[in-house]
Amino acid sequence: MNAYNTVYNGVFDTVSPDLYAFSTGPDTVTASLSTHEVPWSYWILAPSEVGPYGPEGVPFEPVQTAAYAAMRPFDPAMTADSGDAYPDLTFGTNTYNPLVLAPGASGVINLTVTPDASQVGQAIKGFVYIDTFNPVNFVGDEVIRIPYEYTVAP
Predict the structure, then answer these.
(1) Are strands 111-113 and 123-134 parallel, antiparallel or unpaired?
(2) How far is CA 30 from the centre of its chain?
(3) Residue 52 preceded by cis peptide, ω within 30
(4) C-beta separation of 151 from 123 below 8 A
(5) CA 149 from centre of chain
(6) Tell me: the pLDDT tens digits for 1-53?
(7) pTM
(8) What does each C-alpha distance from 57 to 36, 45, 46, 61 come to in angstroms?
(9) Could you tell me which of 11, 52, 91, 130 has the fewest CB atoms within 10 Å of its CB?
């Protein structure tokens, strides 16, 4: 996988990081990325035969691709009065009620934690992500990741 306009820190025009595949079997290659935060934006696959190429140029070969992403699940115990666009887009729900602020302004998002009764006595850990989201072009950015931990009491 090769990318253009790559910016790895969330700045506009991130497409995907340059990843190069390695052979993992006959006619199979694998490229992978493992990190706590994958750069946002569109990802592009640009497979290519290994050169050098003859005078006819790059030979045509059919390519099959697949992608796999392992992500943290949304915590069903957490709800915010601002809703959340990302679970809405994932599950088809409609909670999105964004807090819209002018530059330099501040605001409050109320977060409610309602653990499941089956979790009594368990220590629960996770992160609250404060994100931006632009519904016009479906891009956003993680502003901050706040860790949380609590024990569910009876």
Answers:
(1) unpaired
(2) 20
(3) yes
(4) yes
(5) 22
(6) 334 444 444 444 445 566 778 888 888 888 887 777 776 666 777 777 777 88
(7) 0.58
(8) 40, 20, 16, 12
(9) 52
Enter the tokens of residue 15: 């497409």
How many CB atoms sit inside 10 A of residue 143's CB? Answer: 10
Closest to 116 in 3D by CA, of 150, 89, 145, 146: 150
Q: Where are the chain's structural domains? A: 1-71, 78-151
- The count of other CB atoms within 10 Å of the CB of residue 7 is 14
Question: Token pair for residue 11?
Answer: 């700045």
Amino acid identity for residue 67 in this structure: A
Q: How far is CA 72 from the centre of its chain?
A: 9
Residue 151 Cα distances to 10, 71, 72, 112, angstroms: 34, 23, 20, 15
Tokens of 127: 């992160």
